[in-house]
């Protein structure tokens, strides 16, 4: 029995996921523990969004590793990441509509995160989970 040949799109998604995760961990970690200057640079950040993104960064790296190895659980994890990101984005929207302080760049970042993880989740589902 021979192993399936590498899937270029899946490998690219794995690299994007892992690098995105490492960048998310670094930026979130800096904002959370970088001291007053880092917090000031972050501006009017929304704590639950910042914490979610920081913790999700570890899941991004795990998903990237699993996608590289073509593991079914990684496809499911990518879909969970997409779904939870959309839920946090919706909660962020409620926060904004209720007059909460926020940075406009947070809306842009959450849009990017949502689109990236929807795309990775869809690709992973098509290439791994659905096909078994």
From TrEMBL:
Superkingdom of source: Bacteria
Species per Swiss-Prot/TrEMBL record: Ramlibacter lithotrophicus
Keyword field: Membrane, Transmembrane, Transmembrane helix
Protein name, as recorded: Uncharacterized protein
Residue ranges crossing the lipid bilayer per the database entry: 51-69, 76-95, 107-125
